[in-house]
Write a structure and sequence with these properties.
Layout: H1 10-25, H2 31-36, E1 42-49, E2 53-54, H3 58-68, E3 73-76, E4 83-84, E5 89-96, H4 97-127, E6 134-136, H5 146-155, E7 169-171, H6 173-178, H7 183-193, E8 200-204, H8 207-214, E9 220-224, H9 228-238, E10 243-247, H10 255-259, E11 265-267, H11 270-273, E12 280-284
Parallel strand pairs: 6-11, 7-8, 8-9, 9-10, 10-11
Antiparallel strand pairs: 1-5, 1-12, 2-4, 3-5
Length: 285
């Protein structure tokens, strides 16, 4: 298992699951199951992967079933971060049929969405695994799901950028423009206010901006949408005086070339906002 995953707090998972079930069950519950399935009927079903991918979010499946009935047994067969192939069994559910069928979609929604993010992340990580570079996500997440989507990135072998506006200073182009375009003044102002454990990152678009930023010693410099040759020159200019993060339009087709320039971090917003859901299904035995 990837040691970078870190577990999700149960309280966060349970809260998200309760909210999702309230949304799905409304004020009267599952009309379909309650009108057709005998209350005392039990069944066994497998959660099966329909395609290859990397699993993330099994805790949600367990939490959904536990919320609907204490009599549902959820056996998870693969740990988060596991790469699976089509036909692999992810979990087995046994117990009251109504609970299992009522929770099927919510459980698979969480599991499929997070596994899709982990799968996309894993694909980029595999492309650059022999290089000294980290693959990270951004704050481009689904409102209310950030902690979980960032967890899925970790499950896929990636790392997290800041979680919010509260845990790091990132001076983007608009912040600098609002200060009259003076990168140095922006960095110095941020440093005056920052606590001793807070990192300062500044975004640059050109090598001229990079040169000015380096004079003020930020911790991290974000190279925004730079070409490959400019990135190589940026690495040489920086000479390990700051962490270099490449961002903007990085895809599976370009990730390797960008990583080979010598940057330290690849940040990809689409990992969390556009990764397709991993196709998973529930098969009743």
């Amino acid at each position: 298992m990837n040691s970078n995953i870190l577990s999700l707090p149960n309280t966060l998972v349970e809260q998200a699951v309760k909210t999702a079930l309230i949304e799905d069950l409304g004020s009267v519950g599952d009309l379909t199951s309650n009108s057709t399935i005998p209350v005392d009927l039990s069944l066994t079903a497998h959660v099966v992967s329909r395609q290859a991918g990397c699993i993330a979010g099994t805790d949600f499946l367990t939490a959904v079933m536990a919320e609907l009935s204490p009599n549902v047994t959820t056996d998870i067969h693969v740990a988060d971060s596991t790469v699976v192939k089509p036909g692999d069994h992810i979990a087995t559910l046994s117990g009251p049929a109504r609970a299992i069928l009522s929770g099927e979609r919510v459980g698979l929604n969480f599991l499929g969405h997070l596994s899709g993010i982990a799968t996309a992340t894993r694909a980029i990580v595999d492309l650059v695994e022999d290089l000294p570079v980290r693959v990270t996500c951004t704050r481009k997440t689904t409102p209310g799901l950030r902690a979980f989507e960032k967890y899925a990135v970790r499950a896929g072998g990636g790392f997290n950028h800041r979680f919010g506006l509260y845990d790091g200073i990132l001076l983007k182009d608009n912040h600098i423009a609002a200060m009259g375009g003076d990168i140095g003044a922006a960095i110095d102002s941020a440093r005056t206010a920052a606590g001793h454990m807070v990192k300062i990152e500044v975004e640059v678009d050109t090598l001229a901006q990079l040169e000015k930023a380096l004079l003020h010693k930020p911790d991290i410099i974000l190279l925004d949408n730079m070409g490959i040759e400019d990135m190589r020159r940026a690495v040489a200019m920086t000479n390990n005086l700051a962490i270099l993060e490449a961002s903007g339009g990085i895809t599976e087709a370009t990730a390797r070339d960008i990583a080979e320039t010598g940057v330290d971090v690849l940040s990809l917003g689409w990992l969390t906002h556009s990764s397709p859901c991993l196709d998973l299904g529930l098969d009743i035995l």
